[in-house]
Amino acid sequence: MSIRQRAARPVGYTGLIVGVAAAGAVTMLYRRRERDRAGDDAPGYTARRGFETYDVVGRTVTIRQPREKLFAFWRDFQNLPRVMENLVAVRPAQAAGRWIWTIKAPAGRTVDIETEIAREEEGELIAWRSVEGSAIDTEGRVRFVDAPGDRGTRVSLTVAYKPPAGEIGRGIAKLFRREPAVQARHDLKRFKMLMETGEIATSARRKADRAGGELPAGDRNPKTEPQS
Amino acid sequence: MKALAWHGKHDVRVESVPDPEIVNPRDAIIEISSTAICGSDLHLYDGVIPGMRAGDILGHEFMGRVVETGPGSTLKKGQRVVVPFTISCGQCFHCSVTQYSACENSNPVEKQDLSATVYGHPMAGLFGYSHLTGGYAGGQAEYARVPFSDVGPIVVPDHLDDDSVLFLSDILPTGWMAAENAQIGPDDTVAVWGCGPVGLFAVQSALVMGAARVIAIDHHPHRLELARSLGAEIVNFRESHVREALMEMSGGLGVDAVIDAVGMEAHGFAIDNMLDIAKQKVGMGADRASALKQAILAVRPGGRVSIPGVYGGMTDKFPLGALMEKGIQIRTGQTHVQRYSEKLLSMIEDGSLDTTFLISHRLPLEQGAEGYRNFHDCQNEWTKVVLKPGGPLPVRPGSTSAKERAA
Questions:
Q1: Which residues of B145-163 are buried (b: 16+ CB within 10 A; e: fewer)?
Q2: For chain A, what is the radius of gyration of the CA atoms?
Q3: Which of A60, A69, A191, A197 to mutate: most B Cβ within 10 Å?
Q4: How far is A190 from chain B (nearest CA, A)?
Q5: How many CB pairs under 8 A join A and B?
Q6: SS3 B306
Q7: Across the interface, which of A186, A206, A218 has its CB nearest the CB of B20?
Q8: pLDDT tens, position by position, A118-166
Q9: What is the ipTM of this complex?
Q10: Architecture of the B175-332 domain
Q11: Is B2-170+336-388 a domain of CATH 3.90.180.10?
Q12: Measured between alpha carbons, how far is A19 from A12 in angstroms, rounded to an integer?
């Protein structure tokens, strides 16, 4: 369920959202949690009120693998198409530190989004955002936190995006908004499967029957992967 | 290859389908030598499990020889293995605490949504048991693709024949876990509803675990006789008032533990069960839970309820008050098969468990539809059906060899 469909709560939230395109909705959300301690301890994206023009989804999974390994996989953005359904490819952009994300669009088309790293804390957090003038205004953040005992790592993904203007923008928005929470859950679960088992589960009986076909299985023997 | 596929209510057919392949690195392909029809397959046969699609290959009790392995499999070609019906990765949190049937990684991501919505969490992958549990092709076939083959299949020695070890796949550990969930003590009286294969194995397991008395409840005389031959006392619910009988047979105390080995399609004459039958018929997803309701009323205060019987939806008129006021404990769940494989195999080897007494019929796979029909319609005599892919066919005009895999 999209958060923006939920009942709004009359809070003075507009001020926090102002200038969000530059500062970033996710960052703002994070800051809101820092500042607004009158609220509860639930993650911001589970709030019942909306985020104005932004759609925000968030999901957490626990992965029984060391934090550093998970961070390293994610930090190489070119790995992400292996687990993200809507992401066709990621390649370096001309400007240093920027990446071109090729995303599936309706009618078999794709759209390129140029992103930059907004924040990075080694082994703990990666935040990215689309640069000014992108086809879609989006940003995301993934945080890695040690889970209790030997349970591995808690991985939280938060993605915010603003539905763009124009015809293709509407198409992309529709695709994005199809089931954003489901999408985030699916992508994180594929990430978990690949990291924990070395492969992504499928009930296909034959290679050609594999749904989508483009999500390759891990090519490593999971027995040699480090266990948490 | 030949495989038995579901096409709708009371419609299963043996048909030709492409052979399975290695798809993921940890896969193995098993050439199936024996495969059984499970009582829970009858829920599929009756069309009361959601998420079935025409052409789905059924079967989750199977064994055979390894004919192909992926690079991540630890099996070797030629090994003889029994395959658990639960598909488990061995590496997620739940597998790490031996809750294998709650594996987080075996149900494909795109298949998890329905059960995640209905149950709050997605189900694990199971063989041949609807797209709710992954849509994996089952083992009532000549070959099966077995994912995570380094975790699930147990290698069995050649001196034990198929009949002795086949049920390690499901009903033997399911009956064992049912008895374990009943937390049986040495002076306990245990009542078991349902003398199907799981109920019979639960009876045997409860006795092996040291129960003072086991009382088996059913209405099929032959099935009750099988329970009696294991050492149980029996109650025929068509001839006796079950609750009254159990109270008297337990000295007015009530039975210490009860096991519901019936599940969602229980027989019952009570009006609430009739209502549940009507709802189930119109597809409202009501589980007929009359055995469970009766069991909860029969168990003594502070007693234990174990539910190996399959339920999928919701039920009405649940005796919640009896549950709370009597302080009853309930344990249930799909079987964590891999937790029990080694122990039960050694108990078969040393003769402390009899696993073949309940097999009533052995048929070639080609006669699978007949097996389903009779297992469903003639439950008294047809207690367990084992299908043999490539087995000798009775002389029938026009029949062809089951062994037609070219390679």
A1: bbbbbbbbbbebeeebebe
A2: 18
A3: A197
A4: 7
A5: 95
A6: strand
A7: A206
A8: 999 999 999 999 998 887 788 899 999 999 999 999 999 998 877 666 6
A9: 0.89
A10: 3-Layer(aba) Sandwich (3.40)
A11: yes
A12: 15
